[in-house]
Amino acid sequence: MTTLNKRQRRARKTRAVIAGQSTERLTVHRTNLHIYAQVIDAAGEKVLASASTAEAEVRKKVKNGGNVEAATVIGKRIAEKAKKAGVTQVAFDRSGNKYHGRIQALAEAARENGLSF
Q1: What is the pTM of this model?
Q2: Cα 49–54–60 angle (5° rounding)?
Q3: Is residue 60 domain-resident?
Q4: Residue 47: its pLDDT value, please?
């Protein structure tokens, strides 16, 4: 199995568990250059809030979109946007990535700013 296949397999298992919970989910996508976060409704049909380091407003704040500092900014930003949309409880979908580094920084920043998962 390749590394990609392993990550996709872990992601499938996590999403199957989250689908049974019928709650909004905070999805994270990570690339070398950027990190993206979305809050998706319980049915999985609509994006309620989104934030990424590719946004012009965020690019002014952070020098590099692929580090822990940028992930912390995105975690704070997604929590604020989710609260504005009326969402406080989410399930964390890390897309098969390890809970480490940028993924962990984003999750902790979102928790500190009002999201619970």
Answers
A1: 0.92
A2: 105
A3: yes
A4: 97
Question: Do 62 and 74 form a contact (C-beta atoms < 8 A)?
Answer: no
CATH of the domain at 56: 3.30.420.100
CB atoms within 10 A of CB 98: 10
Q: Where are the beta strands (DSSP E) in the chain?
A: 25-30, 35-40, 47-52, 91-93
Nearest CA among 96, 11, 117 for reference residue 107 = 117
How many structural domains are present in the chain? 1
Paired strand residues for 40: 25, 47
Mean pLDDT of 89-97: 96
Q: For 37-89, what is each residue's pLDDT tens digit?
A: 999 999 989 999 999 999 999 999 999 999 999 999 999 999 999 999 999 99
23-45 as b/e: b if 16+ CB within 10 A: ebbbbbebeeebbbbbbbeeeee
Domain enclosing residue 51, as ranges: 3-112
| Per-residue DSSP letter, 89 | B
